[in-house]
Design the sequence.
């Protein structure tokens, strides 16, 4: 959708009188959902489920409170691989229903016949053993290695594989839930959670604030809880609990920093659950309980900036709702800004500047890569007939961050801070697609910015950066460049002033020295001194492995294999597998290791890696 079509698109999206929909606005059509919410909307869920690890199945009853137009005779839900056994209305009244023929990406529409005045729809069902939104881990895939583990991952359109729902980011629902799990295991959902295991294995949850389906989440396993204070703490397997608690100990002051900037936290709690390695993302902003990858535990709190990002969603998600996955950039636009402001408040501007300089470098590097990667730089992609999980990725985050930095350069932090606080105080989040957002916010915020039509077109629709974009470079990186220059001239790293460097300075150093053809002996000596191959910092290791594979330092291949064997985070796996594939001497290793370890990865990660290995 091009920017010159804004006016026409806006006409379809502006608020209209619609008494049954609380926000009183017409909901844009989402190409990745069969639901027809402008006719019949599911607004509250009463869910009762039971987890069976033997069958790898959840058996459940989803009771949806619905709101309909007067003439609505059908409500439509999204499903993927669900086995529907019974559908009832209101007080257990039978009704007609059918599942449409399944689409490989979208699954099947569940169409349920309504009667006049229907208020509740009850759906009895169970999941398939290979539900895309559920990851079932065997005992030996966990840290404790005593009990199996289950977690969900709904982004982008995977929740429909374990819950019949109207699976669009524009649609939100409140919920009450009861979950039965094997005794001795703990269960959490995207709601306030118990700090103690239930002897009976039954847990109850309630979240009165509406959330989108992709944030309806659960995890079940042998984990425990340790509080920081009365509104935050850590869930983790026992063997990881203490190290996780130490790693994330700056969470309470991080919350307070965000509140100083943008007002009270919208959620009553913000806990962190550290998941087993197969979790495909660094973090997931599930309301009140962030899911975190164990790769964030570096031993020095150097990677907890990602916690700031997921925490930022608590505020940014109250600003706006993106209408579809083609508008995903909106989900991260203000999140990237709020994250930056939190980090500045916690660590100082120079620290935050390093992180964004690295993001700019990665963005510039990807601009020179293949057509497929360039397409990923388009913030508003055409996802018709495509799986959004295969299109949306790290590059969109990097470009959104750069776009937000250009806006900050123009308007200043004070102006944006005041605008965000005003929006949070004045009204609830509204549904926006790209065109309606640009139309509205140009009037409110962008009037004095450089984001004119041409610039916006480039940011949103082109695999490039605007001509007037000037990346901000960290002042601390000037020293790194000087040290890197000395090392490239033959100086030993032990004699150079690196003692006070952060992990971001080391990552930048590795980027700077990645030039020419580095002798294998020099890289081996660097590794022997600094132990990059065995570092506890997974982000640093990923940068190091890219470097050595490009320069044929193959003596570290055992460390590379150990890395892909234990890592589940998609972003990190992708860069390492890509580096392996790009080295003709290592392609066989890439294929061999993927075949060997792919079942440890989440389907989201597996699918993305397959795109690299089978271009």
Sequence:
């Amino acid at each position: 959708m091009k920017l010159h079509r804004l006016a026409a698109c806006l006409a379809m999206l502006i608020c209209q009188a619609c008494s049954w929909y609380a926000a009183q606005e017409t909901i844009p059509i989402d190409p990745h959902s069969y639901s027809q919410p402008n006719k019949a909307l599911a607004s509250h869920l009463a869910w009762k489920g039971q987890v069976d690890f033997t069958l790898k199945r959840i058996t459940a009853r989803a009771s949806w409170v619905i709101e309909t137009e007067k003439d609505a005779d059908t409500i439509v839900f999204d499903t993927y691989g669900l086995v529907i056994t019974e559908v009832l209305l209101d007080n257990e009244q039978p009704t007609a229903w059918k599942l449409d023929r399944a689409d490989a990406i979208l699954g099947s529409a569940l169409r349920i016949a309504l009667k006049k005045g229907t208020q509740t729809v009850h759906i009895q069902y169970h999941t398939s053993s290979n539900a895309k939104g559920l990851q079932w881990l065997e005992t030996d895939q966990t840290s404790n290695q005593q009990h199996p583990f289950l977690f969900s991952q709904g982004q982008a359109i995977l929740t429909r594989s374990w819950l019949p729902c109207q699976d669009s980011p524009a649609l939100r629902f409140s919920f009450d839930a009861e979950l039965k799990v094997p005794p001795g295991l703990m269960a959490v959902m995207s709601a306030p959670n118990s700090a103690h295991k239930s002897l009976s294995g039954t847990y109850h949850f309630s979240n009165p604030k509406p959330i989108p389906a992709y944030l309806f989440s659960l995890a079940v396993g042998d984990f425990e809880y340790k509080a920081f204070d009365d509104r935050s703490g850590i869930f983790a397997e026992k063997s990881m609990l203490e190290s996780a608690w130490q790693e994330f100990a700056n969470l309470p002051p991080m919350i307070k920093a965000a509140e100083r900037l943008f007002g009270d936290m919208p959620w009553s709690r913000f806990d962190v659950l550290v998941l087993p390695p197969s979790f495909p993302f660094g973090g997931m902003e599930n309301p009140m309980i962030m899911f975190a990858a164990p790769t964030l535990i570096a031993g020095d709190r150097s990677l907890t900036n990602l916690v700031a990002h997921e925490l930022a969603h608590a505020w940014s998600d109250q600003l706006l709702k993106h209408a579809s996955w083609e508008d995903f950039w909106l989900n991260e636009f203000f999140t990237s800004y709020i994250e930056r402001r939190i980090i500045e408040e916690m660590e100082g501007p120079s620290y935050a500047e390093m992180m964004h300089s690295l993001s700019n470098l990665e963005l510039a590097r990807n601009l020179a890569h293949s057509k497929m990667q360039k397409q990923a730089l388009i913030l508003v992609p055409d996802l018709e007939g495509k799986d959004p999980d295969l299109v949306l990725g790290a590059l969109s985050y990097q470009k959104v961050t750069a776009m937000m930095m250009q806006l900050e350069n123009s308007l200043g932090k004070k102006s944006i801070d005041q605008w965000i606080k005003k929006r949070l105080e004045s009204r609830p989040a509204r549904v926006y697609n790209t065109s309606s957002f640009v139309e509205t916010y140009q009037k409110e915020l962008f009037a004095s910015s450089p984001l004119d039509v041409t610039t916006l077109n480039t940011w949103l629709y082109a695999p490039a950066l605007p001509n007037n974009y000037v990346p901000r470079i960290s002042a601390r990186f000037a020293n790194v460049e000087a040290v890197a220059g000395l090392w490239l001239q033959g100086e030993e790293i032990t004699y150079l002033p690196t003692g006070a460097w952060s992990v971001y300075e080391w990552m930048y150093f590795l980027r700077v020295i990645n030039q020419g053809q580095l002798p294998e002996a020099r890289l081996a000596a660097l590794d022997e001194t600094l132990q990059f191959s065995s570092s506890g910092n997974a982000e640093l290791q990923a940068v190091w492995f890219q470097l050595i594979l490009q320069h044929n330092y193959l003596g570290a291949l055992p460390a590379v294999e150990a890395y892909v064997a234990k890592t589940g985070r998609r972003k990190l796996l992708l860069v390492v597998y890509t580096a392996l594939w790009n080295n003709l001497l290592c392609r066989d290793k890439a294929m061999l290791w993927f075949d060997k370890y792919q079942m440890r990865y989440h389907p989201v990660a597996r699918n993305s890696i397959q795109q690299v290995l089978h271009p």
Remarks:
- The chain has a mean pLDDT of 90.
